[in-house]
């Protein structure tokens, strides 16, 4: 259990700098819940809301893994990281296509289902193959966690700035 004196978790919801895979697991769980909501709803409004949240979460999560996490853990298993980077390329292509269309477009439904399927498989492979290898490697993940925390904070800041600029134009 984290305490206030634990530098890895100063408060509930804080980025676990000494255990960055836990931050990735939180993202995975959020995407799972949103995916279930999307797949199990008959409401177009619920699907659009969940779909939009899935796309936003995946954009941030993918950039974080591609830019910081994968380069930092490549030494643990280069071929596995290469496989995950290929998965990401497929997901990034789907994200780009979905970003260019409205989620109420009839073509978005099969693409969202393909995206969710690809992501679900990818998440399971990361959690079952990569994360245990990282845990067993003895590699100090604190520097990686600090980089991930800074990267994520910067992305949130940039999104807020873009949102503010969009609001000022109206």
From TrEMBL:
Residues 20-134 form the Hemerythrin-like domain. It comes from the Bacteria. This is Hemerythrin domain-containing protein. Pfam families: Hemerythrin. Signal peptide: none annotated. InterPro entries: Hemerythrin-like. PANTHER family: HHE DOMAIN PROTEIN (AFU_ORTHOLOGUE AFUA_4G00730) (PTHR35585). Gene3D superfamilies: nmb1532 protein domain like. Coiled coil: none annotated.
